[in-house]
């Protein structure tokens, strides 16, 4: 499994040192519902609905390693194009090899998500798929790192009271 690289090292600052030091292992979620490359897109959509998630990981049947990801966006695009989800295989619609590792920093995960317009990143390790970090997990970690710092005031009435 290839690891996505941002090409930019995370820069630590005193205001973001906690987020810069945190990794996706600190925020990833498990267990995961998975599908295989040869499954139909309808099966992936069904599993997403019943798992209450907006993405499902595609794993290699032999190795258990992440092979890709299918999100509700791919399902919606297929439906909008008039395709029959029972006739489309997952591998034709998935985003291939989007995985990161447990040592990827929260800031680097945010950079990848921003640059590639991802809302979910599968997390892989030596033994295969370990979890997923989504945009909510990453944002919460970044906001948690910034706690203790005053939030910018955007309400003029509130600014006048200060």
Beta strand %? 15-25%
Order of helices and strands: HEHEEHEEHEEHH
Q: Whole-Å distance between the termini?
A: 52 Å
Q: On the 0-100 scale, what is the average pLDDT? A: 80
Task: Report low-confidence residues grouped into runs of 5 or more.
Answer: 1-18, 148-162
Structure characterization notes:
The chain has 162 residues and is of the alpha/beta class. Helices cover 33% and strands 19% of the residues. The strands form 2 sheets. Strands 1-2-3-4 form a 4-stranded mixed sheet. Helix 4 (106-116) packs across helix 5 (135-145). The radius of gyration is 18 Å and the shape is globular. Residues 1-18 and 148-162 have low confidence and may be disordered.
Brief synopsis:
The protein is an alpha/beta fold and 162 residues long. The chain is built from 6 helices and 7 strands; from the N terminus they run H-E-H-E-E-H-E-E-H-E-E-H-H.
């Amino acid at each position: 499994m290839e690891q996505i690289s941002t090409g930019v090292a995370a820069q630590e600052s005193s205001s973001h040192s906690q987020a810069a030091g945190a990794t996706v292992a600190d925020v990833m979620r498990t267990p995961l519902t998975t599908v295989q490359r040869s499954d139909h897109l309808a099966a992936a959509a069904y599993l997403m609905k019943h798992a209450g998630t907006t993405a499902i990981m595609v794993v290699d049947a032999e190795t258990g390693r992440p092979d890709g990801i299918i999100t509700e966006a791919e399902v919606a695009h297929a439906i909008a194009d008039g395709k029959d989800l029972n006739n489309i295989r997952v591998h034709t619609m998935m985003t291939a090899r989007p995985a990161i590792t447990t040592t990827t920093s929260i800031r680097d995960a945010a950079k990848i998500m921003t640059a590639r317009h991802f809302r979910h990143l599968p997390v892989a390790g030596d033994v295969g798929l370990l979890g997923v970090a989504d945009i909510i997990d990453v944002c919460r970690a970044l906001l948690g790192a910034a706690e203790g710092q005053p939030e910018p005031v955007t309400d003029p009435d509130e600014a006048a009271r200060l």
